[in-house]
Amino acid sequence: MKLLVILLFSGLITGCRGNSSHSLPPKLLLVSFDGFRADYLQNYEFPHLQNFIKEGVLVEHVKNVFITKTFPNHYSIVTGLYEESHGIVANSMYDVITKKHFSDLDDKDPFWWNEAVPIWVTNQLQENRSSAAAMWPGTDVPIHNTTPSYFMNYSSSVSFEERLNNITTWLINSNPPVTFATLYWEEPDASGHKYGPEDKENMYRVLKEIDDLIGELVHKLKVLGLWENLNVIITSDHGMTQCSKDRLINLDRCIDNSSYALIDLTPVAAVLPKINTTEVYNKLKVCSPHMNVYLKEDIPARFHYQHNNRIQPIILVADEGWTIVLNKSLPKLGDHGYDNSLSSMHPFLAAHGPAFHKGYKHNTINSVDIYPMMCHILGLKPHPNNGTFGHTKCLLVDQWCINLPEAVGIVIGALLVLTTLTGLIIIMQNRLSVPRPFSRLQLQEDDDDPLIE
């Protein structure tokens, strides 16, 4: 038994040291396809992505952070923080102290980003390492006076191919070497807004294009000799749900728009009252049964969306598929931003490379768990964060992973084996210690003949 225990633990230790022998620093490419809803994987065909998954790992659902919009969730992925902690609380923000405004079209002021330290900045501080980025939100901003060593100023007109070419060039030719890189693409989010996720014909076409881009990514990595040694994570920031002109919440029917300012609109609206906050709240509270209205101090704790000055005094949260408007028009057939417990808001995660298992599927993790996992892969000391590394251990080859039911089963099985072995030993000892009746006397060769025959 002692020998078995020693062999078991030596095997575990060997497994945990699996990647320590690599002389070159590990490299990681993080790719986001904006608005890639998790169940697209079940509802559409993705031959290239499925091949990627077969050789790597898949997390079927990633529970993202509230609010489920682009800028906040992309920053949570690379900081491991809830929005109230990293400070990017919406795509449009207002700071009452500095009177500054933030939008996805005016996002270059480091003031908005400096409440957190994204992983590309941490990686830059590692000796003899650099980072690279192609359009990931925030990477073209000097956060804590630091940008990636190589980056592209955001422009939606730049093709995926050009972004990919830049990233692979930097991964191969940079000195010091690029060990962390990000790549962002606007689809299928843009088409999800335009057509709605229930438009099968158009979404089939768009998602096929996405799959072809993944095939192009993998092919290029293989041609350039990066495929076997580069860790690649493909994920997204949020999902998408169908909207309708029959599901509108018209604020103009409930309250005069001169009494408040809308900082961010639909499906989570940030309201800054111009008059008494209670008066504005009471009018909005009865505006629609399909919208929850919260005073800032009453926002549910599960949203982790309360403790930041950029969160406005009143927050409106529409029910899934409902749209908050100031008139009767429907701006988008598909939208996101809703409650992050909704499966329609969840993206997925797939990963491949020397750090990951092959052919492994996992049910769910949180988007904030991605950051500590990436830090582990790169050998970086993570900043304080809201993620849990243990949630992602099962994805990694150098970690011993066991879930609670398996642990209970192993303990019970071990106890049964030990009990059985103990019982057998006791029985054997008892048999050996009791003399056998009528046993024949054994004589030495020089003994006299027996007295009784």
Low-confidence stretches: 1-22, 438-453
Major β-sheet, in short?
8 strands, mixed
- The oligomeric state is single chain
- The helix fraction, in percent, is 25-40%
Number of continuous helical runs: 12
Order of helices and strands: HEHHEHHEEHEEHEHHEEEEEHEEEEEEHH
What is the typical, i.e. mean, pLDDT?
90
| The number of domains | 2
Radius of gyration: 30 Å
Can you say what the CATH homologous superfamily of the largest domain is? Alkaline Phosphatase, subunit A
Distance between the termini: 48 Å
Proportion of beta-strand residues:
15-25%
How many beta-strand segments?
18
The top-level CATH class of the largest domain is Alpha Beta
Strand order of the largest sheet: 6-5-7-1-8-17-2-18
CATH architecture of the largest domain: 3-Layer(aba) Sandwich
Question: What form results from the Cα inertia axes?
Answer: globular
Kindly name the structural category.
alpha/beta
GO molecular function: bis(5'-adenosyl)-triphosphatase activity; metal ion binding
InterPro entries: Alkaline_phosphatase_core_sf, Phosphodiest/P_Trfase
Signal peptide: 1-18
Main location: membrane
